[in-house]
Amino acid sequence: MKTFAKSACLVLLAAWAGNAVSSAQTNPPAATTNPPAAATKMTTRRFSGKILSVDIKAKTITLQGGAKAVVAITDKTKIIRAKKPATFDVLAADQAVTGIEQRDAAGNWQAETLNVGDPRQLLTEPPPKVIIAPDKKK
After folding, report:
1. Where does residue 119 rank: exposed (0-12), middle (13-18), buried (19+ CB within 10 A)?
2. What angle do CA 69, 71, 72 make, to 5 degrees?
3. pLDDT range class, residue 10, cuts 50, 70, 90
4. Helix or strand or coil: residue 83?
5. What whole-number distance in Å separates Cα of residue 108 and Cα of residue 98?
6. CATH assignment of 44-121?
7. pLDDT class of 117 with cuts at 50, 70, 90
8. How far is residue 93's CA from residue 60's CA, in Å, rounded to a whole number?
9. How far is CA 124 from the centre of its chain?
């Protein structure tokens, strides 16, 4: 029995080694003539924080934090407050915001989406009450 197991292992090992050698011989590495692609620039990024100030003329908001970040708001920016569409007028200091910025053709960052309000507050809503009718079979 031990001899049979050893023989079977040797046969499998020989078949595997033969397959590896034959595939290495039939598939030579392709010569690369093209240079490696340049690193792609990041086109979107997330942001979050509390609003420090709102500039109505420039349509920007400044976020407070370690490094002050200025977020440009455009007409295409989707502003959401309490799960409903909102406008630039609802923005005020000390509001929590999150969103996604997108780089335009000129390389400037502009807000694609802007969610106003702390998303954790939405999670603290009480769960809906579920009423189960009593079983009449008893």
Report:
1. exposed
2. 150
3. low
4. coil
5. 19
6. 2.40.50.320
7. confident
8. 12
9. 24
Residues for the chain: how many in total? 138
Find the helix or strand (DSSP H, E) in which 51 lies. Answer: strand 44-55
Distances (CA, A) of 134 to 128, 129, 130, 131: 19, 16, 13, 9
Q: What residue type is assigned to position 92 of the chain? A: A
The alpha-helical segments, DSSP class H, found in the chain are 2-26, 119-123
CB-based contact 75:88 (threshold 8 Å)? no
Domain positions in the chain are: 44-121
Contact 71, 63 (CB under 8 A): yes
Enter the tokens of residue 85.
Answer: 């569409």
